[in-house]
Amino acid sequence: MKIAILSCNRKLYSTRRLQEAGKARGHEVDIINTLECYMDITKNNPTVRYRGEALPYYDAVIPRIGTSVTFYGTAIVRQFEVAGSFSVNESVAISRSRDKLRSLQLMSRKGIGLPRTGFAKKSSNVKDLIKTVGGAPVVIKLLEGTQGIGVVLADTDKAAESIIEAFMGIHANILVQEFIKEAGGADIRCLVVGGKVIAAMKRQGAEGEFRSNLHRGGSAELIKLTKEERATAVGAAKVMGLNLCGVDILQSNHGPVVMEVNSSPGLEGIETVTKKDVAGMVFEYIEKNAKPHNTKTRGKG
To answer: Number of H helices and number of E strands within the chain?
Structure first.
């Protein structure tokens, strides 16, 4: 099949591994810079243009859309979908998962385990908001944050009030969540492909750090998931409508709770820890679900 990886950086481990895995399975795999794509929206022949030419028809696309380019990136993915390409993650699912508040609301409706979370607009509601999630310590998150950036732990109610009011003062949207102390600065990253957890690792934050992101100096090790943890990860992916995602779970006293569902999970950490060919499994999923159109082309190849 002819497959495109949409990525702004071809040097990233995940991008390179996906291309290598696809070629190893006999596919023609191109890396296309999402931000260099643009659209020709026309009746019966929607195309994606790239560096002055119309792109050929791709049987499938693998979106690697960064948080900072979500709006434009999902618009490009949608254009490929309109043209008939199979997308590993549909544009609407990527957009849904990137809205942290909406994600939590949707998972809450479907009974997925979550940390108790509050959201408010007016400073007059801040004290009750903190009380509602169980009081300090509380975690305060920017809705637009990623990789642990824009996440603050407030140890006292007064500190939490000051931080929240400061964010509100610059019109930033924030969530306030209960602090899962018993997690001990660790979380579980579950890699879900096609409705199944294909790999999992436990990430431990650096000493004195409550965030477990590997980007922030955390470490990782293999973990055997419980039945409930596996079901939580699969359920979260299903609610988001994502065929490929990383689901981050905390082990709490009231069961596994989902912290985030990532539509473009990094592969380096989980492949290194689990020794699994995660990239190859992504292509296995594509082979089972995409329908090749070998004779169909759009523009120049």
So the answer is: 9, 16
